[in-house]
Specification:
Blueprint (H helix, E strand, L loop, with lengths): L20 H8 L3 E5 L2 E4 L1 H20 L3 E2 L5 E3 H7 L1 H4 L5 E4 L5 E4 L4 H11 L8 E10 L14 E11 L2 H21 L4 E5 L10 E7 L5 E5 L6 E3 L20 E4 L6 H8 L7 E8 L9 E8 L6 H8 L2 E3 L2 H8 L16 E4 H4 L4 E4 L5 E6 L10 E3 L18 E15 L1 H5 L3 E3 L5 E3 L1 E8 H11 L1 E2 L2 E2 L10 E5 L6 H16 L4 E3 L6 H10 L4 E5 L1 H5 L2 E6 L6 E4 L3 H8 L3
Parallel strand pairs: 3-7, 15-17, 17-20, 27-28, 27-29
Antiparallel strand pairs: 1-2, 4-6, 5-6, 7-8, 8-24, 9-10, 10-21, 11-12, 11-21, 13-19, 14-15, 14-16, 18-19, 21-24, 22-23, 25-26, 29-30, 30-31
The structure holds adenosine-5'-triphosphate and magnesium ion.
């Protein structure tokens, strides 16, 4: 590509609303332009990156014998009513009407459509297994679109769906996809980790997420450096404490703790370790279905621990956090001084680490006061239920018993899931087995956030000068920067010759033939993250040399004109 025939539009400064580096750099490099919140135009240079990501995914999916198709973005509501998701999917589902007032959705995912295709097309076990995939635009009306294309409202996903005559065969395909995703993210040049989204072994009824490791990631991950355990913090189990509850040694006392509403402040004020404090979180259990009665309850956690909402919901059912006025009504006290002493019939859920505490500190349900030397059974009633309510923390024992957990952050770029018969049953997607019996199909689904990957790759690869793309997805592998292309015939001829030779070798090369100042061209090529740069100048040519610099090299080096193409081919393995 010649830049005079391409379209580059870089910016000196990123717009101030771009919070994270990948978003800033994508805007500065002119890869994307914002149209509306979470909705972006992919500009030519950005689109080249997306296409490279897609090509790798497509190659690996084809290699795994999945079959590509393309489904509509606009889907009739009837299918969503049939699966039950018309009511269950919240406001993230964009609904609209056609001119006949018929309801439609803009697809956030395609389980319904693919299941409809398969139930109409597939009748016999002989046609199974089948795995269809597509690379297609999705729309999710995210509550907080942010970080540019990382959490967009419109984005591109590779979504695949497999259909099987048995659970065992679904598990086989799931392993194939686990390996395929591992190959894809490796080829994309990303540092990533596969984490269990529930059971931890890929044999079980399971789900795994693939995360690109980055501090800006929205997900917390827990992993064990001594074993292969890795899980989303949302699901990582906190093992029960080994020790049992020591007997009470102190008497309960009410102490003034003015203005100390957080456990950290109370512990510091009283000169006690944070692990001696207990925080009480007021929740409202909302119950299932219409007319369900709402009920306030307390969840107790050790002062240094945090509530895990996913685990909590699994234990207590649907819930929300209580509003201040609801807390005052139920406990006679505003949040910050809550505790479980003398609270009548308010249900108390305790984390396993709290249940083994004695002589602890908690709120006195009286603003400005806490209680010390509190003990279950004696001062506070025994918890209604004891369970794992907390997020794991650094140093917790790994649930596989083979070391201690460490925490890091990740960006979810892929998700594989054994759906089993959830959709097939609802949509009556059946086949005739060998004995002529009608049976419901087993299903798996497999997603990759294609456009999110572009942002995630930049989160991992950048410096103060701009993007550092892995070669596999860089918009161009090589750029040729001639010094005076329009002025010097020698330079022009040498640059054109190298350009043609690299093109002929199948290398994706950008020839910067614009009449720009060298400094501007260098800065732009570095901002775009092009991995290899060759400068063609009269002085070097006079000595038969060109200047080469890798995007990560500290210094440029001079190489003979005659060997530079071979040098690049070797670097790029072509
Ligand atoms: P998240 O928890 O990040 O919202 P999800 O669990 O809703 O993701 P899936 O339904 O599993 O995501 O979708 C498959 C993949 O699509 C995700 O792994 C992610 O890479 C990508 N993805 C999901 N939502 C978005 C979004 N709003 N913008 C860009 N990519 C997305
Ligand atoms: Mg989501």
């Amino acid at each position: 590509m010649r830049s005079s025939r391409f379209f580059l539009s870089t910016l000196k400064e990123a717009p101030s609303d771009a919070e994270i580096v990948s978003h800033q750099l994508m805007l500065r490099a002119g890869m994307i332009k914002r149209l509306a919140g979470g909705i972006y135009t992919w500009m030519p240079v950005g689109l080249r990156v997306v296409r490279k990501v897609e090509a790798i995914i497509r190659q690996e999916m084809d290699r795994a014998k999945a079959i590509e198709l393309s489904m509509p973005a606009v889907q009739p509501a009837e299918l969503w009513q049939e699966s039950g998701r018309w009511d269950k999917y919240g406001p993230e589902l964009l609904r609209c009407k056609d001119r006949h007032q018929r309801d439609f959705v803009i697809g956030p995912t395609h389980e319904e459509v693919i299941t409809d295709v398969v139930r109409k097309e597939v009748k016999s076990y002989r046609q199974l297994p089948l795995h269809f995939y597509q690379i297609q635009v999705k729309f999710r009306d995210e509550i907080r679109p942010r970080f540019g294309v990382m959490r967009g409202r419109e984005f591109v996903m590779k979504d695949g769906y497999s259909f099987h005559s048995s659970f065992a065969d679904l598990q086989r395909e799931y392993r194939v996809m686990f390996d395929t995703y591992t190959r894809i993210f490796t080829r994309l040049g990303l540092q990533f980790r596969a984490v269990a989204a529930d059971t931890g072994s890929i044999g079980g009824t399971g789900s795994h997420e693939f995360h690109v490791l980055a501090d800006s990631g929205e997900d917390g991950l827990a992993y064990c450096p001594d074993s292969d355990y890795a899980a989303n913090v949302e699901l990582a189990t906190a093992l029960p404490p080994a020790a049992s509850r020591p007997p009470a040694a102190e008497t309960m006392q009410k102490v003034a703790t003015p203005g100390r509403t957080r456990c950290e402040d109370v512990a510091e004020f009283l000169g006690l370790p944070l692990t001696r404090t207990v925080k009480a979180i007021a929740i409202i259990m909302t119950g299932e279905g219409e007319g369900a009665a709402e009920r306030l309850a307390l969840v107790l956690l050790r002062g240094d621990h945090n509530l895990n909402e996913i685990k909590t919901q699994k234990i207590v059912g649907e819930f929300r956090f209580a509003r201040d006025d609801e807390i005052v009504t139920a406990l006679g006290c505003s949040p910050g001084y809550l505790g479980s002493v003398a609270i009548g019939d308010v249900p108390v859920f305790a984390d396993r680490d709290v249940a083994v505490m004695s002589d602890f500190v908690c709120g006195a349900n009286d603003a400005g006061y806490h209680l010390t030397g509190v003990n279950f059974g004696r001062d506070a009633k025994e918890p209604t239920q004891v369970a794992d309510f907390r997020n794991v923390v650094n140093g917790d024992l790994s649930p596989d018993g083979r070391g201690r957990l460490e925490l890091c952050r990740g960006i979810e770029v892929g998700h594989i899931f054994q759906l089993r018969t959830k959709y097939a049953e609802a949509l009556k997607c059946c086949f005739l087995d060998e004995g002529g019996q009608s049976r419901v199909m087993e299903m798996g689904c497999y997603g990759i956030g294609v456009t999110r990957i572009v942002g995630a790759a930049i989160e991992q690869g950048h410096d103060e000068r701009g993007i550092i793309f892995p070669v596999a997805i860089a918009p161009f592998a090589v750029c040729i920067v001639p010094m005076g292309y329009t002025k010097s015939q020698t330079v022009r001829e040498a640059a054109d010759a190298l350009y043609s030779e690299l093109l002929a070798a199948g290398i994706d090369v950008l020839l910067d033939d614009r009449p720009e100042r060298p400094g501007v061209m260098f800065a732009e090529m570095e901002l775009l993250g092009i991995p290899h740069r060759v400068v063609v100048g009269e002085r070097g040519l006079a000595r038969g040399e060109l200047e080469y610099k890798g995007r990560l090299d500290a210094e440029a080096q001079m190489l003979p004109v005659t060997t530079i193409a071979q040098f690049l081919k070797e670097r790029l393995c072509v």
